[in-house]
Amino acid sequence: MTENTYTVTGMTCAHCAAAVTEEVSAVSGVESVEVSVEAGTVLVRGVGVSDEQVRTAVDEAGYAVA
Questions:
Q1: Is residue 9 exposed (0-12), middle (13-18) or buried (19+ Cβ within 10 Å)?
Q2: Strand 41-46 and strand 64-65: pairing?
Q3: Neighbour count for residue 47 (Cβ, 10 Å)
Q4: Could you give the number of structural domains in the chain?
Q5: Which pLDDT value is given to residue 49?
Q6: What is the mean pLDDT of residues 27-41?
C-alpha cells in the first residue's frame, strides 16, 4: 500500500472536503482518504493509485492539485 499527500487549492469548508473525499474515494485502488481543509491537503492511501488518477478526481470535485 502506498500513501501520498497532495496539496489541493480552493478548499474552504466541510462541503469542499466532502466533495474531494467522494471523488477520490471512487478511484479504483483507494483504501482511504483524509482531507484537511485547514492545511489544504489530501492524504490518499491505496494500492496501484496513480498521481494522475488523484489529480483527475480532485479536478472533477472542482478543485486543483497544486
A1: exposed
A2: unpaired
A3: 10
A4: 1
A5: 97
A6: 98
Q: Three cell numbers at 58? A: 480532485
| DSSP state letter for 11 | -
Q: Residue 13: CB partners within 8 Å, gap ≥ 6?
A: 37
**Domain range holding 58?**
2-65
The CATH number for 25's domain is 3.30.70.100
Which residues in 1-66 belong to E strands, given as ranges? 2-9, 30-36, 41-46, 64-65
pLDDT category of residue 20 using cuts at 50, 70 and 90: very high
Q: What is the pLDDT, as a whole number, of residue 32? A: 98
CB atoms within 10 A of CB 61: 21
Residue 13 confidence class, pLDDT cut points 50, 70, 90: very high
